[in-house]
Amino acid sequence: MCSVWRHRVINAFVNCLLMKKLKIAVRKWRMMRLFRKRDDSSLTRQTSIEPVPSTSGTPAHISRPPVDLLQLEPDEGQKLREQQLRQYAFFQLRIHLKRGQNLVAMDKNGTSDPYVKFKAAGRLLHKSKIVYRDLNPVWDECFTVPIEDPFQPVQLKVFDYDWGLQDDFMGSCQLDLTALELGRSQDLVLCLRDPNKPTQDMGEIVLNVTLYPKSQEDKEAKQIVQISKNI
């Protein structure tokens, strides 16, 4: 009988020790999470902004996304870019439409006559030239357009030109301006898709883009120039 009580007392003592160690471990884990959250928040607050070399008509205070942006979580990096975009009155988007790759054949002869339309918020920004009988067309066109709302993606649609008939749709894609680094030239490859043929490979569009932020003074000056042209 005494041995039974002795085992019970020992077991109870061991369980108390284990519970105490478990509580200590849980307390340490909570403290580590708390410090980690504080470090992350301080990293976001203390992020430095590097200046970008100014171009003609561009204010000297243009900022680029910080180097620490690469170390943040994807959602935090996106929020930081969106905060930067809201600091400017408007933007200029420079696009170098380079070429298309492996586009679909829409004509009976096994080729297409592709061209590209760029739109934003329903407004036509640019229409490329037609490259005849080529599934890997080289456009090599550069153009710059004003952007009022960078949160509206730029829509790209490729068509096959048909003389006297309705042009055939060859796929579309979109350019997310919020994912761009301000003032930095970036090479992109955008995959074309057809909503009616979700599994079909429609080819790719290769381009280089740069999004330049502009000040309120730049915007007013551009409006004055536009008004003078219309007079």
Spatial gap, N to C terminus? 111 Å
Quickly count the helices.
3
Low-confidence stretches: 41-72
Tally of DSSP β-strands: 10
Helix content: 25-40%
N-to-C SSE series? HEEHEEEEEEEEH
Describe the structure.
InterPro entries: C2_dom, C2_domain_sf. A 4-stranded antiparallel beta sheet has the order 6-3-10-9. 31% of the residues lie in helices and 30% in strands. Strand 4 (114-120) and strand 5 (123-127) form a beta hairpin. The protein has 3 helices and 10 strands, in the order αββαββββββββα. It has helices at 2-45, 74-85, 216-230, and strands spanning 50-51, 63-64, 90-101, 114-120, 123-127, 138-147, 154-160, 168-175, 186-191, 204-214.
Strands, helices and their partners?
Layout (H helix, E strand, L loop, with lengths): L1 H44 L4 E2 L11 E2 L9 H12 L4 E12 L12 E7 L2 E5 L10 E10 L6 E7 L7 E8 L10 E6 L12 E11 L1 H15 L1
Summarize the structure.
With 231 residues, the protein is of the alpha+beta class. Helix content is 31%, strand content 30%. The protein has helices spanning 2-45, 74-85, 216-230, and strands at 50-51, 63-64, 90-101, 114-120, 123-127, 138-147, 154-160, 168-175, 186-191, 204-214.
Key words describing this protein structure:
alpha+beta; single chain; 30% strand; 231 residues; 4-stranded antiparallel β-sheet
